[in-house]
């Protein structure tokens, strides 16, 4: 596929992880010209909706496109603008929960370093419509929290996020009562221990879930987001097993998706997944990269 080189910039790329028909697909990366990290796309009806932070991470913007391979000149809407005393709005993700649409994100405000928040769409069939004011998630979790996402397993929903509670950024999981209420227990699911996870600081972050043949897969990032070796790896758990028990998970040794020095592509982390029209392809990955690090 063609690539548009943007020097020293975080760009949003698309990669289709399938073994057939790739040669028939033609598109240009990056898929949008604005610069932003931590992209996420959800297909609603006949359109794709990309959520990113813009204007110095102060505006949460939704882009709408009928095709996944380009959001250039796409219709857009600012769903939320952070208050003047807030900063660093990161990693927004749109999810459908029990027939309603929600956007989960993190921001720092009132002296608190990154806490999780959620918005609800006024009309679940129209992501470009109005959204609620933000509601604080985990209000009694007095630690930084970023990269929140949803896991669906054994007909139960779980909230999974990253926190520096133990001194390094690690991944936590807790059951959900509903889209805006997180239950207990809160379990430390994974912390960085391998060499590839500790470039410029030991980090596990950016979890996202895909599902296949009764197995739930958690794709996550390791190493610092500014380290050129920032990469993706995987944990998985079979249906029927309790995800709140870390011993029930299988882990991959090392990264699965990493830098390509020959192509000057680095920082291949924090991915999200979506589907093609008709759910034909289940493994379309939207990710950030840095070119010419």
Mean pLDDT level: 88
How does the overall form come out from the CA principal axes?
A: globular
> C-alpha Rg, in Å?
18 Å
Number of strands: 22
CATH class: Mainly Beta
Largest sheet: 5 strands, antiparallel
Provide the CATH superfamily: Glycosyl hydrolase domain, family 43
Structural class: mainly beta
CATH topology name, in short, is Tachylectin-2, Chain A
**SSE arrangement, N to C:** EEEEEEEEEEEEEEEEEEEEEE
Helix count, per DSSP?
A: 0
Summarize the amount of helix as a percent range. Answer: under 10%
Percent of residues in beta strands: over 45%
CATH architecture: 5 Propeller
Task: Give the termini separation.
Answer: 20 Å
Question: What low-confidence regions span 5 or more consecutive residues with pLDDT below 50?
Answer: 1-9, 18-24
Number of domains: 1
What does this structure look like?
The chain is globular and about 45 Å long. It has one domain: Tachylectin-2, Chain A (5 Propeller). The chain has 293 residues and is mainly beta. The chain is built from no helices and 22 strands.
Topology of this protein?
Elements: E1 2-3, E2 10-16, E3 28-29, E4 40-44, E5 47-54, E6 59-65, E7 75-81, E8 87-97, E9 100-109, E10 112-120, E11 135-136, E12 146-153, E13 156-163, E14 170-178, E15 181-182, E16 187-190, E17 204-212, E18 215-222, E19 231-238, E20 250-251, E21 265-274, E22 284-291
How do you describe this structure in short?
InterPro entries: Glyco_hydro_43, Glyco_hydro_beta-prop_sf. With 293 residues, this protein is mainly β.
């Amino acid at each position: 596929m063609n690539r548009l080189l943007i020097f020293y910039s975080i760009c949003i790329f698309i990669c289709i992880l399938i073994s057939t028909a790739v040669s028939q697909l033609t598109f240009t990366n990056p898929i949008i010209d604005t610069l932003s990290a931590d992209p996420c796309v959800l297909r609603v009806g006949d359109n794709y909706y990309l959520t990113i932070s813009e204007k110095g991470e102060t505006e949460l913007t939704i882009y709408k496109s009928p095709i996944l391979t380009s959001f250039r000149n796409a219709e857009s809407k600012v769903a939320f603008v952070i208050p003047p005393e807030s900063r660093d709005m990161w990693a927004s993700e749109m999810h459908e929960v029990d027939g309603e649409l929600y956007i989960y994100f993190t921001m720092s405000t009132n002296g608190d370093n990154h806490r999780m928040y959620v918005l609800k769409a006024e009309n679940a069939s129209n992501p470009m419509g109005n959204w609620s004011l933000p509601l604080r998630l985990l209000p009694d979790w007095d630690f930084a929290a970023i990269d929140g996402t949803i896991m669906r397993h054994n007909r139960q929903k779980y909230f999974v996020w990253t926190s520096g509670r133990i001194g390094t950024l690690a991944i936590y999981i807790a059951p959900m009562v509903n889209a805006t209420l997180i239950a207990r227990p809160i379990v430390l699911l994974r912390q960085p221990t391998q060499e590839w996870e500790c470039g410029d600081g030991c980090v596990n972050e950016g979890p996202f879930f895909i599902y296949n043949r009764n197995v739930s897969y958690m794709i996550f990032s390791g190493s610092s987001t500014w380290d050129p070796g920032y990469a993706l790896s995987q944990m998985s758990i079979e249906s029927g097993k309790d995800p709140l028990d870390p011993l029930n998970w299988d882990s991959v040794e090392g990264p699965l998706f990493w830098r390509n020095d020959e192509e000057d592509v680095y920082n291949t982390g924090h991915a999200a997944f979506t589907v093609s029209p008709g759910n034909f392809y289940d493994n379309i990955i939207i990710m950030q990269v840095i070119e010419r690090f």
